[in-house]
């Protein structure tokens, strides 16, 4: 406590809500994103997939079972089919909540002051044309300055960089990489998005020297929030933005 201490490199760590305030509301739903904004999140992280009829929807899994009362692949359903499903995933008080389209989410956040981390879920299913549709929506809503695209599919990121997408790109990874800052620079990315377990102090230092951001997921415990902030990460991605806000603001 006692005032804001300068972090490593003078970085003040931001709070990004993982799938919205998913610790308190059904993940990747509009109420979860609204709550995250109310709780003081600086950014929202969310996952996108493509419907059978090529609408971009906000949902984490490629399949419906875990977070909705539907079955099977997202990619096998039309948007109309998906909109009939309940996405409250057992959370009391959220009955009738549906899978949002990316358009609905962008409408909700259009006037909110939050960064938008769009995670392209294209590493298991090579959704044809998903990147283009996401970018078209970003442009339709004028959100380029607020967006960072991320993916575990590094070839997708390389393609976007080579095509001159002109938006920040975050390299997602779960296991430690060899000199990830060099890897990201070569890929044309501007940020590393390591798991908490794969985050190294040296990675934060070298990344900053190379002009890269480091945004770490998923940081849910107060002591880990302290630790990564001390390390100078640019953003911590958490299911509990309210807790993160109180931990970071007390520094
Ligand atoms: O974007 C960070 C994190 O969300 C990546 O893992 O499985 O939660 O999408 P996952
Ligand atoms: Ca994600």
Automatic annotation (TrEMBL):
For this protein, the record's Pfam families field holds: GDPD
Query: Which is an annotated GO molecular function term of this record?
Result: phosphoric diester hydrolase activity
Q: Which PROSITE patterns match?
A: GP_PDE
Q: Where is the GP-PDE domain?
A: 13-248
Gene Ontology process terms (BP): lipid metabolic process
Please identify the protein, giving its name as recorded: GP-PDE domain-containing protein
Species of provenance: Propioniciclava flava
């Amino acid at each position: 406590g006692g005032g804001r201490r300068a972090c490593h490199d003078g970085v003040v760590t931001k709070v990004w809500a993982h799938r919205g305030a998913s610790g308190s509301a059904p993940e990747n739903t509009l109420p979860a994103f609204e709550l995250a904004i109310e709780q003081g999140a600086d950014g929202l992280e969310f996952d996108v997939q493509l419907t059978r009829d090529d609408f971009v929807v906000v949902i984490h899994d490629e399949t419906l079972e875990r977070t909705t009362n539907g079955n099977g692949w997202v990619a096998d359903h039309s948007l109309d089919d998906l909109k009939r499903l309940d996405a409250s995933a057992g959370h009391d008080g959220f009955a009738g909540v549906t899978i949002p389209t990316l358009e609905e989410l962008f409408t909700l956040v259009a006037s909110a002051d939050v960064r938008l981390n769009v995670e392209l879920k294209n590493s298991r299913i090579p959704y044809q044309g998903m990147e283009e549709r996401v970018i078209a929506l970003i442009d339709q809503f004028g959100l380029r300055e607020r967006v960072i695209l991320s993916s575990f599919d590094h070839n997708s990121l390389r393609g976007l960089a080579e095509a001159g997408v002109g938006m920040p790109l975050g390299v997602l990874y779960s296991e430690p990489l060899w000199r990830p800052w060099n890897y990201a620079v070569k890929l044309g990315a501007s940020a590393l998005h390591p798991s908490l377990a794969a985050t190294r102090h040296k990675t934060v230092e070298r990344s900053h020297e190379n002009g890269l951001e480091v945004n770490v997921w998923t940081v849910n415990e107060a002591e880990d929030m302290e630790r990564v902030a001390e390390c100078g990460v640019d953003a911590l991605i958490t299911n509990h933005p309210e807790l993160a806000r109180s931990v970071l603001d007390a520094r």
